[in-house]
Each structure stands twice: as structure tokens, then as C-alpha cells.
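Input/output pair, single chain:
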Amino acid sequence: MFNTRIRVPEQATAGAFVEIRAMVMHPMDNGYSYTTQGTLIPVDIITDFTCRYLGDEVIRVRLEPGISANPIFTFSLVATATGPVDFEWIDQHGTVTTATATLTVT
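Output:
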């Protein structure tokens, strides 16, 4: 499990678009870098990112080795009701990192 940073507005008006930000701290090693001792660093990447709002999928991203370290995603969704915004990152080894925030709709 990796360190995550998510930003979801504390409150939103029903029907309004809100900006969501999500970042996971991950090296995203592409398999082309070497250590200072000359050893190849193996590929180690996050392969999938998914966000769900009220249980419905909002965004799904498939990541490739060309993505930089600590990938950040910014996107919008329509606030319809108060509920959870769930985030999920999966790396190539099957490790799942999750985070949740509550969006309050008035």
C-alpha cells in the first residue's frame, strides 16, 4: 500500500461539477533506469486507476511504463448526492491501494 493524496471538495451544490484530484506516491520505474552501481532497476508500475462515486465508476485509467513517478489525476464529476468517492490503484504485482473521501451535497 502506497501513500495517497486525494482532494475532494467538502461541499458541493447538487448538479454542480466538482474537481477531484488523486495522487499516489509510487516510483513508476520503467525498466530502463540503472542504479549508481550499474544494476538495471526492474519495471515497477501502477497498471490501473479507478474512481467510483456512489458506487458508480467515474473514471478508469490503464497506465503504461511511460507515466512519471507519483502519477496525479485531475477530473470532474457531477455532484448528485452525499456519498463516498472511492479511489483504487493496482500495481503490476496485484497490490491494491485504496482511499475514500466523502462528498457532501447540499
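The two ends are 33 Å apart (CA to CA). Residues 4-31+41-105 form a domain with the Immunoglobulin-like fold (CATH 2.60.40.10).
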